[in-house]
Design brief:
Bound molecules: ligand PBG
Number of helices: 11
Strand content: 15-25%
Order of helices and strands: HEEEHEHEEEHEHEHHEHEHHEH
Number of strands: 12
Largest sheet: 10 strands, mixed
Shape: globular
Number of domains: 1
CATH class: Alpha Beta
Distance between the termini: 43 Å
Length: about 325
């Protein structure tokens, strides 16, 4: 074994290994693959609907009949799958559409599985798109403080997840940051015979301004207050994310997610290192996407290069699964 100090310049020249493209390629450790990417889709009722989302160029609110074409493309590009968000016709205090067999997501899942049975369909399990107040659960003021009622919400979350599984969802992804949500869903799925359906938990989800464009897309902006009583404080001790992940795993989460992605690379890395064998997803959120789109439209940055570099950074930080609005574009760029 060679001991002693590493030889330094001029014996050692780091640039030596950067000369030949072949050597550079051989030394690449991080790879982007379409199979690791999940495309978010927004579904609303109707026929032939394809309504552009202003703040997210290239993305649309579509009706279930439009899913067939979309999923064909997803399959051809070799993407990992899609995650569905529903925009219901009517909202109410408890988000009734979200737990109904005839709900928009349930219809969408059924249409998706019929049109393209092999494409993986994940469903976002949450209430903010379905409630008239726009919060991620049931609101009460029992405590003299208007807030999401954690335990009352659990019951509904479990029903929602089960209805998604019954409609054919391959994976359910609770995103509300409600304590106990993973355990409640797991128990309900198992009791109904859906032991084979994985739970991908939005385990460390921050109260982030980067969700702005999504709330336009999903029409889910809170009508009062904000989400800081359930989503994490970006300024909190980073180890709080590890506790969230640990708790979700103890409740039976199969995949854990960090969200947003690019501003939270430290969290991704911490989770990767603390839980090496656990599948880890990163949600490259709407704001991360729209910022780049807007700057690229002005000719200020190169969209393709910036997008691929961003996604690569997420993989380097430890994410195995990337939820990204660039999924289709990235797959084409990589082809
Ligand atoms: C629903 C949900 C949100 C996102 C994914 N699921 C919005 C929120 O918490 O306000 C954000 C996704 C994005 O910004 O791309 N709870």
């Amino acid at each position: 074994m060679q001991k002693g100090p590493t030889p330094s310049f001029p014996t050692t020249r780091m640039r030596r290994l950067r000369q030949h493209p072949g050597v550079r390629r051989m030394l690449e450790e991080t790879r982007l693959t379409p199979a690791d990417m999940v495309l978010p889709l927004f579904v609303r009722s109707g026929k032939g609907v394809r309504q552009a989302i202003g703040s997210m160029p290239g993305h649309f609110q579509i009706s279930p009949d439009q899913l067939a074409a979309e999923l064909d493309e997803v399959g051809e590009l070799g993407l990992g799958g899609v995650i569905l968000f529903g925009i219901p016709d009517t909202k109410d205090a408890v988000g009734s559409d979200s737990t109904s067999e005839a709900g928009i997501v349930q219809q969408a899942v059924a249409a998706a599985k019929k049109a393209a049975p092999d494409v993986l369909v994940i469903t976002d399990v949450c209430f903010c798109e379905y409630t008239d107040h726009g919060h991620c659960g049931v609101i009460n003021d029992k405590t003299g403080r208007v807030d999401v009622d954690n335990d009352a919400t659990l019951e509904l979350i479990a029903s929602q997840a089960l209805s998604h599984a019954r409609a054919g969802a391959d994976v359910v992804a609770p995103s509300g940051m409600i304590d106990g949500m993973v355990g409640a869903i797991r128990a309900r799925l198992d009791a109904a015979g859906f032991t084979h359906v994985p739970v991908m938990s939005y385990a460390a989800k921050y109260a982030s301004a980067f969700y702005g464009p999504f709330r336009d897309a999903a029409e889910s902006t809170p009508q009062f207050g904000d989400r800081r009583s359930y989503q994490m404080d970006p300024a909190a001790d980073a180890r709080q994310a590890l506790r969230e992940v640990e708790l979700d795993l103890a409740e039976g989460a199969d995949i854990v997610m960090v969200k947003p992605a690019l501003p939270y690379l430290d969290i991704l890395r911490d989770v990767r290192d603390a839980f090496p064998g656990v599948p880890l997803a990163a949600y490259n959120v709407s704001g991360e996407f729209s910022m780049v789109k807007a700057a690229a439209e002005r000719g200020w940055i190169d969209e393709r290069a910036v997008a691929l570099e961003s996604l690569l950074a997420l993989r380097r930080a430890g994410a195995g699964i990337l939820l990204t609005y660039w999924a289709k574009q990235a797959a084409r760029w990589l082809a």
